[in-house]
Amino acid sequence: MNLESLYSPLTDHEIEWKVQTCGKNSNGFWCLIVPYIQARAAMDRFDKAFGPLNWKVNYTFMQEGVVCHLSVYDPDKKDWIMKEDGAERTD
Predict the structure, then answer these.
(1) Stated pTM of the model
(2) Smallest Cα–Cα separation from 82: which of 60, 58, 53?
(3) Contacts for 17 with CB less than 8 Å, ≥ 6 apart
(4) Contact by Cβ (8 Å): 66, 87
(5) How confident is the model at residue 5 (pLDDT cuts 50, 70, 90)?
(6) Nearest to 12 by CA among 33, 41, 39
């Protein structure tokens, strides 16, 4: 395992930007631009940290949103460790 690769700062080519919202007020036009990463950037880091065969991801889609189940194989315990989290549906 190479867990250090998970903690290293994101590189410029891993970070992308998108316009979240924009508008006009009494001061003129404004725009909120937010950073994000594509799923491929996260997958590349997991491949580097655990190897391409030692992690997996599953999604549960529900009417209210989605839950991501992320599992990593622990060779010392010879078992899969899973974490999960969810989010409401958005545009």
Answers:
(1) 0.73
(2) 58
(3) 33, 34, 35, 36
(4) yes
(5) confident
(6) 41
Average pLDDT over residues 2-7: 85
Burial label, 1 (beta-carbon count in 10 A; 0-12, 13-18, 19+): middle
Size (the chain), residues? 91
Segment holding 50, helix H or strand E: helix 39-50
68's enclosing H/E stretch is: strand 65-74
Residue found by looking up tokens 């899973």 in the block: 82
Q: Mean pLDDT across the stretch 50-74?
A: 95
